[in-house]
Design brief:
Layout lengths: L4 H37 L2 H21 L4 H17 L1
Length: 86
């Protein structure tokens, strides 16, 4: 356990950040699953709607520093390729 005040504060902050990051990851995974199911169903309206949701969640996660910009760019590129493929 931490003994210094700064280390105790750092431990508290890490706990909160871990909770927030896991919430974003959960939202992202859910949105990706919805996107994949809409691509499988080949419903164009649903695909566009779910892609916008994924794009928004990824942008927010990148803004918060959970993911790096290149990682998000690469993921969105591969998802948009899936759209054009169908």
């Amino acid at each position: 356990m931490a003994n210094h005040a700064s280390a105790i504060k750092r431990a508290r902050q890490n706990k909160v950040r871990k909770a927030v990051n896991s919430q974003y990851l959960s939202k992202l995974r859910t949105a990706l699953n919805k996107f994949k199911s809409s691509v499988d169903s080949k419903n164009s309206e649903e695909i566009v709607k779910s892609f916008k949701a994924v794009n928004s969640i990824m942008a927010k996660a990148q803004k918060k520093g959970i993911f790096k910009k290149r990682n998000i760019s690469r993921k969105l590129s591969s998802l948009s390729k899936q759209i054009t493929k169908n």
